[in-house]
Amino acid sequence: MTSLRLDCVFYYVEDLDRAVHFYTAVLGLRLSSRDVVARFDVDGLLLELVPAGHPDLLSGRGNARLALAVEDIQTTAAELRSRGAAVSEVQHVSNGWLASLRDPDSNEIVLWQYA
Fold it and tell me: 52 near 58, Cβ under 8 Å?
């Protein structure tokens, strides 16, 4: 069997301009490149936003999530809320804290702070 390697993680989006604005202006990610898709380098992980060719691809009900590690989840959540993101309340779990938000296409993003 040939070896497998990670290429990218991607989310389908309805409006690429709107999605790029959210990921840059709200989340503060740096756009690496853009052609038919938008690409972000998130600590060495390639995140792509791909225009959906069909509305069924925009269900937002998938099990995948982009999890972003943060140093101070309360401060980060407050900062994102000030930029217009609807961030959930921070929840304490056995090994840390988490909060979630959704991009304009209902793709879930998780903020994570290790204990």
Answer: yes
- Report CA Rg, the chain: 15
What are the boundaries of each domain within the chain? Answer: 9-54+64-114
pTM of the predicted structure, to 2 decimals: 0.82
Q: Summarize pLDDT for 43-76 with one digit per residue, the tens.
A: 999 999 999 888 777 766 666 778 899 999 999 9
Q: Where does residue 44 rank: exposed (0-12), middle (13-18), buried (19+ CB within 10 A)?
A: exposed
DSSP 66-80: EEEE-S-HHHHHHHH
**CATH topology for the 9-54+64-114 domain:** 2,3-Dihydroxybiphenyl 1,2-Dioxygenase; domain 1 (3.10.180)
- For the record, the structure tokens of 75 come out as 């401060």
Reference 36, options 13, 59, 62; nearest CA is: 13
